Amino acid sequence: MFVGIDLGGTAIKGALIDGKGAMLSFAQIETPGSAKKIDDGILGLMAILASSAKISETDIQGVGIGSAGSIDKSRGRIITSPNIPALKNHPLARNLEKAAGARVFLENDATVALMGASWKGKSGFRNWIMLTLGTGIGGGAVIDGRVYTGQSGNAMEVGHMSIDHAGRECPCGNRGCLERYASASALARDAEALAKTNPGSSLNGRMKNGSLTALAVYEEALKKDRAALAAIREAARYLGYGIAALVNLFNPEAVVLGGGLSNAHSMLIPVIEDTVRLRALPGLKENVRIIPVKDPSRVPSIGAAKMAMDALSGIPETR
Ligand SMILES: [Zn+2]
Known about the structure:
Elements: E1 2-7, E2 11-17, E3 23-30, H1 35-52, E4 62-67, E5 70-72, E6 77-80, H2 92-100, E7 103-108, H3 109-121, E8 128-133, E9 137-143, E10 146-148, H4 179-182, H5 184-197, H6 214-222, H7 226-250, E11 254-258, H8 265-279, E12 289-292, H9 299-312
Parallel strand pairs: 1-4, 4-7, 8-11, 11-12
Antiparallel strand pairs: 1-2, 2-3, 5-6, 8-9, 9-10
Bound molecules: zinc ion.
């Protein structure tokens, strides 16, 4: 049995799979505010996964964790995570290994999403990119059929690709990072500003303590609220700028959208496609498909479990 953990800025999700890859249980908790509570939260999640699948926790052979931020894979440590500041220099995998008595493997969150999508999605693509649209924006690439992770597992930090050198400040230290304009949290913040200048917008009725969630914005956009639709189109346009650059760099067959915000794909994709058509180079932009991943909330944790399974059976990171 293998556990996969998807550690994001808003939620920690876990999946338990057996040796054949069948999912036995799935659960999620809110991401706590301190590193110690995150360790404990993951241990608690493992207990829930085991008990709901009616197995003993000692049957868990390996745990894969996909974490937001930059990681030191070999030391099992988070280097820095702009969306989960408490995890800076946190030895997450080592702590959990000690506490859980199972091997723990750390990977970038978008890379495990990509592993899950390529394992369960059976896309047939050999060159493709994945973007995970959540609190931040993660990215992964499959090049000639192999997952590309870079020298230390931190490749494809798509969310911190600067699309405006003088743009919005980012906690990473750069300016104009894509995720400051097109992540779920950026969408929510931009919609809050739009709601204030549009008193008639139904977004105003969805505010809680002056804040919106991306889900609330999406739900109001489905009901054709103009401010909500404008906020989603704006986020999609920015995604299009980023994706056009990625298309020029990677010449992919497909760009796959995952993460919670990808549930709004029917509104995002037409705008992204228009922007890519305007901005990417001829010869690259014509045959690229922009598609949503199936089951975006579970795919990263399933991919993280698969990563642990492969690591323990000595299979390299190929699809
Ligand atoms: Zn940044």
